[in-house]
Amino acid sequence: MLRGRTYYILIFLLLVGGSASICGSWPPSRWNDGQLAGAVTFMLAAGMGMLSIISARVRMQKLAARVVQMIEQTKLSFIDASDSESAPFIAAVNDLVNYVEKSVSDASLAVKELEIQLKVATAQRQHAEAIIYSISDGVLVTDPFDELVLANESAAKTFNFDLEKANRRPIDSVICDAKTIELIREMRQSDSTGRRIVEHQIKTAEGVRTYKMTLSCVADQNDEPAGVVAVLHDMTKEKEVAEMKNDFVSNVSHELRTPLASIKAYVEMLIDGEATDEKTTHEFYEVIQNEANRLGRLIDNILNISRIESGLVKINKQPQSLMVIMKEAIEVITPQAKLKQIKIEEKLTPAFYQTLADKDMLYQAVLNLLSNAIKYTPEGGTVTVQTEVNEGKKRVIGRISDTGVGIPPKDLPFVFDKFYRAEANNRMAKGTGLGLSLVKHIVETVHQGRIFVESQVGKGSCFGFELDLCE
User: Which of 127, 134, 424, 449 sits at 20 to 30 Å (Cα–Cα) from 399?
Assistant: First the structure.
């Protein structure tokens, strides 16, 4: 590469030679005014052309750095005009050289500013990508040609595609969900500056899930559509919780209405004087009392389950003997068993095997299981209360078995759900459908144990639970 004055002398000779070709003579002192003007015009045009080439090339970072270095090393000086006749021509060349030097310096500054802007833009993009990659919602960003330019892991998991291979590929070759592709294309074609929120179900590897999809157009500097951003929020659990709440309110309303209707009916009969004797009046009072007690139990169970689920219940865990708790529950339930001539058999382990438990809550769970066993066992049947100890696993097991009607296999997976009652056994005994749900919460939520059920229709059922032994 040419260095120093040689570079500029070569430029000068090229310009002068071109001028001489145009004017047809040398030296410049022989040129007339027209020839001199033509030569100067040629040199200015050639100089401006070279300036354009230089300006275009200095926008390239590496070449700009070399040009700046060359200028700093050569210390450009102007040509001395010793001939008065060629002074205008020499002055024009000096002005041209000065203009070139200033243009190169300005271009160098512009390149440096562009470099700074590029670094800032790159940092901003990396920051935006880091935010998008870190959020749990799925994010898809497409360009005006419906090609995927950005996505995060959540979106890749939802639509089951490879994040590294999906960049700059058409969305219809990346996403298998036709509805999502249609929504993105419609949003891009709408040229809308607002947002569109759509609830959409997508089939994923985990099954069909419900998403709230928020779509918005991205505009460029000229407010032209530059692509679409789609954010997918998984609201499957929210939908399930909402449905559970609706079911809960519906079931509670139904369960409350039944005892209230009975109480209201018998009170109206008493007011109307339909109880003409003491015996009938006493029967009406008993019905009202039983329904009021049932209503109270229902409300208590609802409150207890709600407190356990919300974590507001006060738990007082102390080392307790499961055998002692079982014995206390048996003593309370025995009068009810005798009315139906049901025999209660005890197979209990020694009292020194203890578990860390809240005595009152565990007692309530055992009493509920015993009460259910008595309810669904015909007269003359047997209820067996048993405790076992597995010292190897450090677990104590409680079992309450009966010789009752049993539970159909189709109902077994749901017996611990709120308000669920097996249709086959509804006529045999009344209930709220909350007792077993409360037992499960006490065993598993409060005591971190495990509850289970085994049953055969016509032969009976066995409800049991496991708790940790105290060390």
Answer: 424
Q: Has residue 279 been placed in a domain?
A: yes
Q: What is the pLDDT of residues 45-99, one digit of tens each?
A: 444 444 444 444 444 445 445 544 554 454 444 445 455 566 666 677 677 777 7
User: Would the CA dihedral through 163, 168, 173, 176 be positive or negative?
Assistant: positive
The residue segments making up the domain with residue 457 are 318-468
Q: What distance in Å separates the CA atoms of residue 191 and residue 178, rounded to the nearest whole number?
A: 21
Residues 224 and 265 in one domain: no
Do 347 and 440 lie in a common domain?
Answer: yes
Give the phi and the psi of residue 58 in degrees, each rounded to 5.
Answer: -70, -15
Rounded-to-integer distance, Cα 262 and Cα 290, Å: 10
Do 51 and 87 have their domain in common? yes
Residue 432 and residue 333 share a domain: yes
Distance CA 4, CA 9 (A): 9
Contacts 24+ apart (CB under 8 A), 280-289: 287/262, 288/262, 288/263
Where a domain ends, among 254, 276, 310? Answer: 310
Given a contact cutoff of 8 angstroms between Cβ atoms, the answer to whether 320 and 447 are in contact is no
* Per-residue pLDDT reduced to its tens digit, 128-144: 667 667 777 888 888 88
pTM of the model: 0.48
* CA separation for the pair 89, 49 (Å, rounded): 18
Residue 438 has pLDDT above 70, yes or no: yes
